[in-house]
From TrEMBL:
Protein name stated in the entry: diguanylate cyclase
InterPro entries to which the protein is assigned, alphabetical: Diguanylate_Cyclase (IPR050469), GGDEF_dom (IPR000160), Nucleotide_cyclase (IPR029787), Rev_trsase/Diguanyl_cyclase (IPR043128)
Gene3D superfamilies: 3.30.70.270
Lineage: Bacteria, Pseudomonadati, Pseudomonadota, Gammaproteobacteria, Enterobacterales
PROSITE patterns: GGDEF
Species in which this protein is naturally found: Scandinavium lactucae
Length: 479
């Protein structure tokens, strides 16, 4: 599968105040202009993306929630109105209502982050739904007051219009902004991967053909399919596109809810609320799937790695070996390592000290082995190394490097120096036509036999198939 790498793009950075200010001003102005183009004759706006986009940005980047950044956002709105409208004092109130929505959503999300004690991963879609509801109420109250002298609607219809518009766009856009991530690479897409999107398009076309209030729910099953098949950011983007498309199609009577009569303002109000309520469902499903996948990865990580020493567990080692490329001529060395007299460490200094020694020992072995092999804890104080080596001598030299490194290391526990040694048994051979797992198991049996010989010979030794040769090299290394 071919892929195209994409360079990383960073828009906001906590350390670059001036750049943050310029981007906030530019984004605010851009989406204010987009919203202005979407205004209809008898409504303040049909689809107003600015507030949800800015609320998502402030909610996503906690360190942007400063008074001067909010002031820049508000100033950009006022400046745009000065250049394009004659609203005067009404602009102060209307744009203040925009800021009310932005600040309320951002502060509520920040409260969640503070309570969590760290940056959260997946968004809580249900809470975001309620936050949009609360923010839309206060935004609509102030916005309806400010717009009385601008449009021809009375207070209550204007209040309903503001509320439904802010709530629907917030629910549709906020999840998209808060989960938006640019891919690091573009991979080739297969036809089967596009089936949920195709089903989504067909469901929208079916809503246009059938009409009626129930047609708005037609895309729901397709969106849930998307939530199951696609990552959370993609699901949020598809939900936004579908929800916005339905609102626009209903407003222009392409989807005829009334069927027998023209669309009324109350129906558009109901449409917006209904679509917002439906749109949250696939987002909730997608966040749930993301949470389940994350949990499965954590469970898999716990199963594949030893919690204490952070090296592979026995099962994790076998899974890693299965993923190794098979090369019949590849030489493999399997080492079985046992910390000498480890029981005395636990007996004399306690199990907490024993855990410290195990962790430090595993780190030493990982540093020596590096990328050449895999390190795993088999249980207790026994570890195994599966390494790619040139020949038996190369494997023996690697084992000796480990033994000498451990022998020369002084561990410090509560200001007391501790020394330890390790006995190593080696099994080595080529893979030939054998499966990697089968070859490893055979070499592990051999390594276990020579580990026993290393212990019997007095410990702190490396033993391999040619004992005499091993002993000679060991004496030369010690000399």
């Amino acid at each position: 599968m071919r892929s195209i790498s994409i360079p990383r793009l960073t828009v906001f950075s906590e350390a670059h105040i001036l750049r943050n200010a310029l981007f906030l001003f530019a984004i605010t102005t851009l989406f204010y202009a987009v919203g202005a183009m979407l205004r209809l004759v008898q409504e303040l706006s049909l689809f107003w993306p600015l507030n949800a986009v800015m609320a998502g940005i402030f909610a996503r980047y906690v360190w942007l929630n400063r008074l001067h950044y909010y002031a820049i956002c508000y100033g950009a709105m006022l400046l745009f109105d000065v250049v394009t409208t004659q609203w005067g004092m009404a602009s102060l109130i209307i744009n203040a209502s925009n800021m009310v929505f932005i600040v309320i959503v951002a502060q509520l999300v920040m409260r969640d982050k503070h309570q969590a004690g760290s940056e959260p991963g997946p968004i809580n879609a249900l809470r975001l739904f309620y936050y949009c509801l609360i923010a839309a109420v206060f935004c609509a109250l102030l916005g309806a007051i400010g717009s009385e002298g601008i449009d021809r609607q009375s207070f209550m219809p204007s209040l309903a219009d503001w509320f439904s518009e802010q709530f629907s766009t917030g629910v549709l856009i906020l999840p998209c902004v808060m989960t938006l991530t640019l891919p690091h690479e573009i991979t080739r897409i297969h036809g089967k991967q596009l089936l949920p999107v195709l089903f989504l398009v067909l469901s929208v076309l079916a809503a246009i053909a059938v009409g009626g209030a129930g047609s708005l729910a037609f895309p729901l099953s397709a969106l849930i399919w998307c939530a199951i098949r696609y990552p959370l950011p993609v699901t949020c983007a598809l939900t936004l596109i579908t929800g916005a498309a339905e609102i626009i199609l209903v407003a222009n009577s392409v989807i005829n809810l009334a069927v027998s009569g023209p669309l009324q303002t109350a129906q558009l109000f109901s449409t917006r609320l209904g679509i917002a309520t439906l749109a949250i469902s696939p987002v909730i499903v997608s966040t749930s799937v993301a949470a389940i996948n994350n949990l499965m990865r954590q469970v898999s990580l716990r199963a594949d790695f030893d919690f204490l020493t952070r090296v592979y567990s026995r099962s994790g080692l076998y899974e890693a070996l299965k993923k190794q490329p098979v090369n019949a001529s590849q030489h493999m060395t399997v080492m079985l390592l046992d910390i000498d007299f480890f029981k005395s460490v636990n007996d004399n200094h306690g199990h907490e000290c024993g855990d410290y020694v195990l962790t430090a020992f595993a780190r030493q072995v990982r540093e020596v082995v590096g990328e050449q092999g895999l390190v795993a804890r088999m249980g207790g104080e026994e570890f195994v190394v599966a390494a790619k080596t040139l020949d038996p001598l190369d494997g023996y030299q690697l084992a000796e490097n480990i033994r000498r490194r451990v022998e020369s290391t002084v561990f410090h526990w509560r200001q007391q120096p501790l020394r330890t040694t390790v006995s190593i048994g080696i099994g080595s051979g080529t893979l030939d036509t054998r499966d990697t797992i089968d070859a490893f198991n055979e070499l592990l049996v051999e390594a276990d036999e020579y580990l026993y010989r290393a212990k019997k010979a007095g410990r702190n030794k490396t033993c391999a198939k040619s004992v005499a040769e091993t002993d000679i090299r060991h004496e030369e290394a010690s000399a």
